[in-house]
Write a structure and sequence with these properties.
This protein has a 6-stranded mixed sheet with strand order 6-7-8-3-9-10, with helices on both faces. A 4-stranded antiparallel sheet has the order 2-1-4-5, covered by helices on one side. Helix content is about 35%, strand content about 25%. The chain folds into 2 domains: about 140 residues, Rossmann fold; about 60 residues, no CATH class. Helix 6 links the parallel strand 7 and strand 8. The protein starts with a strand and ends with a strand. The chain has 9 helices and 12 strands. It is globular and about 55 Å long. By secondary structure, it is α/β, with parallel strands linked by helices.
Length: about 260
């Protein structure tokens, strides 16, 4: 569903990825992990078509991303950024309706089928009761679900999310991860999200994509744990990772 070949990404004079390749099929949930500042957001933006790679080819459903028109791209991949939408006069329903923009006419007029898709997306994330609430009156977890509903309303086979569990408490992190896994497995979506929550990634994801500039490693979750790459990622950071239980136990001093 999402693939890239010979991909090179740079940020200013710094090379984040060099000549790397990976493929993510539909029906899978993948976590993108790595240390701060290693380029996770840059990679997601490139896969969404928002930033250009320095070299290489990105494919969406077998088609080169660079060859897609903006409308075609908007029907192939949706992107949930880290922005906190708190607009006082914007309702949750209106926010989700923005996902229908690739399918409406030139003045953005929605048809009954579009409204039904918005309602369906709200039901999918369990937020139909919040449709009339404005975004500034929702909690961080509720807003995150609304932004995911917007991506669902966009009806793309691929969904990219940048740090969707950031600022959420533990129950909401697990609830969100459960939702993403259900959407991937039940609806055949290809979902890739960046996260610092390694426990969540290893408990819920089918695959782990580990960014260790200028290399990228993408393996099934079990294979990634066995590879030892996660321990090497944390080496020297003071963080203790228990591969047997797949848990981050704290820093080396036990805190």
């Amino acid at each position: 569903m999402i693939a890239f070949e010979h991909l090179t990404l740079a940020y200013g004079q710094r090379t984040l990825l060099h000549d790397t390749a990976a493929a993510l099929p539909g029906g899978t949930l993948t976590a993108l992990v790595g240390r701060n500042g290693t380029g996770k957001s840059t990679l997601l933006r490139a896969l969404a078509g928002l930033d250009l790679p320095a070299a290489g080819e990105i494919l969406l459903a077998g088609r080169p991303l660079r060859a897609l028109t903006p409308r075609e791209r908007a029907t192939a991949v949706s992107f949930v950024a880290t922005d906190r939408v708190r607009i006082a006069d914007l309702t949750a329903e209106a926010t989700v309706a923005l996902g229908r923009a690739p399918y409406t006419d030139w003045i953005g007029r929605m048809q009954p089928a579009d409204r039904e898709r918005v309602a369906h997306a709200l039901r999918d994330v369990g937020m139909e009761a919040f449709a009339r609430k404005t975004m500034d009156r929702l909690s961080d977890g509720e807003r995150q679900r609304i932004l995911i509903a917007r991506a669902l309303a966009q009806e793309t086979p691929a969904i990219l999310l940048d740090e969707p569990t950031a600022f959420l408490d533990l129950p909401n992190r697990y609830a969100l991860a459960t939702l993403l896994r259900r959407l991937a497995h039940d609806e055949g979506k290809c979902i890739l999200f960046s996260t610092h929550e390694l426990d969540v990634a290893l408990a819920f994801c089918d695959r782990v994509m580990l960014l260790d500039p200028p290399a990228l490693h993408c393996l099934a979750t079990d294979a990634m744990v066995r590879s030892g790459r996660i321990e090497r990622l944390f080496a020297g950071s003071g963080v203790v990772f228990d591969a047997r239980t797949r848990r981050v136990l704290g820093d080396a001093d036990g805190r």
